[in-house]
Write a structure and sequence with these properties.
353 residues, 19-stranded mixed sheet, 19% helix, Immunoglobulin-like, 2 domains, alpha+beta, 21 strands, 38% strand, TIM Barrel
């Protein structure tokens, strides 16, 4: 299946970002992305969704929305909405009605930064997801770049350091979020995972010091969602929008931290008696299953079953594991970067039933 790289969850000056849709397009073109999905808070911007071309590069800009109840205090339970084609913010007071509305509109929905703890040193409150009785959402935002940045800000000095050292921020999805995902998967749910940058390109100053925290392009070279789509992009915006939404809906994706090294080319499949499936798919365990993992370069690869590590390979590119046990299998890959072992790739599961 063809692989494309998208960056999702970002904000423009229509909400709390500093840039325009045109700024995002230019940053995405420079970063070599195939598509971006803009998600301003409680506003769906009609008009800019299309392909944009510069030289031999093109990028598809899609418009979604990050919806939450603005009168709620604190403002928890943010929902990323892609593909609804209209504003659904009026449904925000009831998260289940909102999710139902997304599904009726033919869109997909992901719980944004489901674990997003407070950062008192910089005045940031906890805005985690808080409505766990909901059903029908597509998945969760497993790795959120800006939420992870918040967790580094123990003091104001930490804020200064990481503001000027973006490459040292990312280490992987928050452990609490990984545990949450595994609990949801253990409930026999199909819960897809995506990675979001949550880019704002915020302008900040301290006396003579001025800084953009962090430019769109910096985010676009870091935490991305890689999709395996059913056919190559056609360069028709409507057709390719459908291909992207279908891949997100089915969990045909992995999260790649592309700053240390490109994660393009990763794959995780399961081979059974009569078929082969990939990430997000289901397969029968009858007759045994062979799991195969391909890495873009040598790294530390961990295979997990039902949330527990069952096999670790080090300094390898190809991994094989045979199983006769049903379960939810997923892959985590770690790479050494700037003196620390950091999360590099997080696959969506294969459901062995």
């Amino acid at each position: 299946m063809p692989e494309i790289v998208i960056n999702l969850h970002m904000h423009t000056r229509y909400s709390d970002g500093s840039g325009s849709h045109a700024d995002i397009v230019q940053a995405a073109l420079r970063a070599g992305l195939d598509a971006v999905i803009v998600t301003d808070h409680n506003v769906w911007v009609n008009g800019p969704e299309d392909y944009y071309t510069q030289g031999d590069r093109s990028v598809l800009l899609l418009v979604g929305e990050e919806i939450h109840n603005p009168v709620r205090d604190p403002q928890k339970s943010h929902l990323l909405v892609f593909g609804a084609g209209r504003d659904l913010a009026t449904l925000a007071p009831n998260p289940q009605h909102l999710i139902d509305g997304v599904n009726q509109a033919g869109g997909v929905s992901f719980l944004a930064h489901p674990i997003d703890p407070e950062a008192p040193a910089v005045g940031e409150t906890d805005i985690s997801w808080d409505d766990w009785n909901v059903q029908g959402y597509t998945g969760i935002e497993l790795w959120n770049g800006f939420s992870e940045f918040k967790t580094r800000l123990k003091t104001y000095l930490h804020a200064l350091f990481y503001t000027f050292n973006f490459a040292r921020v990312a280490r992987g999805p928050l452990p609490q979020t990984l545990q949450l995902w595994d609990r949801l998967l253990a409930e026999k749910r199909r819960v897809a995972a995506v990675g979001g940058s949550d880019a704002h390109a915020l302008h900040r100053s301290l006396g003579p010091l001025r800084r953009v925290v962090f430019p769109y392009e910096v985010h676009f070279r870091a935490i991305n969602t890689h999709l395996q789509i059913s056919q190559a992009l056609t360069k028709d915006a409507i057709d390719d929008r459908r291909l992207i939404l279908d891949a997100l809906r089915q969990g045909h994706a992995f999260i790649g931290y592309d700053l240390p090294a490109s994660t393009r080319g990763f794959n995780f499949i399961a081979q059974g008696n009569d078929k082969t499936v990939g990430m997000g798919d289901e397969i029968s365990v009858q007759g045994g299953i062979t799991l195969q993992i391909r890495l873009p370069r040598r790294a530390e690869c961990r295979l997990l079953k039902d949330g527990a590590v069952i096999k670790v390979w080090r300094k390898t590119e190809n991994c094989t594991y045979i199983t006769t046990e049903p379960g939810v299998y997923r892959v985590e890959v770690y790479i050494s970067y700037l003196g620390q072992l950091r999360g590099w790739i997080f696959s969506n599961p294969i459901y062995v039933r």
